[in-house]
Specification:
With about 160 residues, the protein is mainly alpha-helical. It has one domain (about 5-150). It has helices at about 5-15, 30-35, 50-60, 75-85, 95-100, 115-120, 125-135, 145. The longest helix is centred in the middle third of the chain and has 13 residues, at about 75-85. It binds heme C (HEC) (2 copies).
Length: about 160
């Protein structure tokens, strides 16, 4: 959504969601293989949400990926892992990504964005609970159910 339109929508809704600058937009994924193969069962999550070690661990365990078989061939795994790790929260210079790592101990390798302390903090909110009920969202992994601009990197437009 264009910033001006976004501001108008917020005014109309009487919402208190902060109008984030363009620098808070998570960079949309540009790799086609990632979009295709990691966007099949859920949206393809932006790599800036997890540290490098998380993506390495996840890509090494695709045959049992949260109870699903998400196996890929070796070339695809290599390409996807290269993209995810090059843009990981602790590699990318993107500021919002760095913030996701707050209170994440370096000895911990989280596999879920939704278990990060910052994520939990941002979603421990009455609005989130209301949205869960109203939209009948079954899992916090369904980001785009609440954040309609999620695949485009917008998480402040609900
Ligand atoms: C065969 C289906 C399938 C494919 C393909 C798949 N996933 Fe998943 N993924 C899942 C399921 C199921 C979950 C758990 C969702 C839930 O808890 O609601 C999940 C969860 C995740 C989560 C954690 C979400 C959270 O709770 O924060 C991440 C990160 C993730 N997947 C990344 C990937 C990546 C990277 C790829 C591509 C290599 C991929 N997924 C491909 C099925 C899939
Ligand atoms: C049930 C609805 C719901 C789901 C599912 C959900 N969110 Fe959110 N999210 C919210 C709400 C509501 C806020 C608070 C918006 C505000 O007031 O700033 C929020 C805030 C955020 C923020 C902070 C935005 C800011 O203001 O800078 C980020 C980042 C975010 N969500 C990412 C995600 C990701 C990634 C997922 C999926 C793994 C996800 N969310 C799933 C409802 C949801």
């Amino acid at each position: 959504m264009k910033p001006i339109l976004f501001a108008l929508v917020l005014l109309a809704a009487g919402s208190s969601v902060s109008t984030a600058g363009a620098d808070e937009r998570f960079p949309p994924i540009t790799n086609k293989t990632v979009l295709q193969e990691c966007g099949d069962c859920h949206m393809a999550f932006q790599p800036q949400f997890l540290p490098k070690r998380s993506w390495v661990k996840m890509m090494a365990g695709l045959s049992d990926h949260f109870g699903e078989d998400a196996s890929l061939d070796v070339a695809q795994v290599k390409e996807i892992e290269a993209y995810l790790t090059a843009n990981a929260a602790d590699v990318s210079r993107f500021r919002e990504g760095r913030k996701m790592l707050r209170r994440v101990d370096s000895k911990w390798t989280p596999l879920r964005i939704s278990e990060l302390p910052r994520f939990r903090h941002e979603h421990d909110d009455r609005d989130v609970k209301r949205m869960l009920d109203r939209l009948k969202v079954k899992t916090m992994a369904a980001c785009q159910a609440c954040h309609r601009g999620a695949t485009q990197g917008y998480f402040d437009d609900d």
